[in-house]
Amino acid sequence: xxxxxxxxxxxxxxxxxxxxxxxxxxxxxxxxxxxxxxxxxxxxxxxxxxxxxxxxxxxxxxxxxxxxxxxxxxxxxxxxxxxxxxxxxxxxxxxxxxxxxxxxxxxxxxxxxxxxxxxxxxxxxxxxxxxxxxxxxxxxxxxxxxxxxxxxxxxxxxxxxxxxxxxxxxxxxxxxxxxxxxxxxxxxxxxxxxxxxxxxxxxxxxxxxxxxxxxxxxxxxxxxxxxxxxxxxxxxxxxxxxxxxxxxxxxxxxxxxxxxxxxxxxxxxxxxxxxxxxxxxxxxxxxxxxxxxxxxxxxxxxxxxxxxxxxxxxxxxxxxxxxxxxxxxxxxxxxxxxxxxxxxxxxxxxxxxxxxxxxxxxxxxxxxxxxxxxxxxxxxxxxxxxxxxxxxxxxxxxxx
Length: 400
Ligand SMILES: [Zn+2]
Ligand SMILES: [Zn+2]
Description:
mainly alpha; 2 domains; disordered N terminus
């Protein structure tokens, strides 16, 4: 009898043939950096020019992955002028993370089949190391290129140029650019080592953390239907990509850190460029939809907490817990009223847009905006009250 358990699939997958180009780059570059950097430091110090180029290349390549490979090409969350695309394409090439076409198509598969051990190319259900690095070391069937999900990219001249000339471009950017800058500032080896090799190795693992770390550690404020998490520490080193829980539920939003206080420099950059016409069609999920996801998640948590409390305490449940349960039920009813009103308001807005001949259209639109804002406040209040209820449940449970 054939077994199809995840373990079985994994053990079969472990015998996948080695992906030599990927395996060599990903193992030899860190080894080279670990040998060459101390050797260099033995007899030299890092020049100011090498440090500056290292930082500038780090920013350029990091942003090229987040704003370019990820939010522009993989998810099409905005459009960009060709100069911006060229800048991001070259920066992305420097990272040695394969072509835009391969990267973005694989990433679309990751979103579509997230956590699936057979179809997600870097499923975190196959372990930290597999999702971080292992998936690139062998030719696993789950990681096989299939560009059917990228007809837009197959028709993009710049993307296809990079894909077809990937190796020469990779060599020119990594060796040519760094050597030329090094020569210009009088420190060829220092710049090639720092802005070339060390920057590339660090850039690799920082990006890979999104597939490994951000699917294991952090909070899930929007959904727990997949492993993606919001992790502020990762956001700090990935130009805002750490808000991965939000990103997995609303992948077509150009923002990952959607709240104004969240650290998302990629969002700030794309939005600033739109002010000068270099980016356009920035896609945003409506605030109410986001808020609803958050409140729904809080309800789910409160419900789970309540049901574990009920199963723990049974009929002898603490009086306070009964009270919380009662309040929770009331809140559920109140939420469904809010949702119904929101739904009818959306229908009205849709009809209004369709009609578009009413003379009072502006006044009505203004009134609707106010109504939408009221719904937003009510949703926010539901969330806040639930937060208090959740704390109450935890407190009652702790004094048991
Ligand atoms: Zn992910
Ligand atoms: Zn994504």
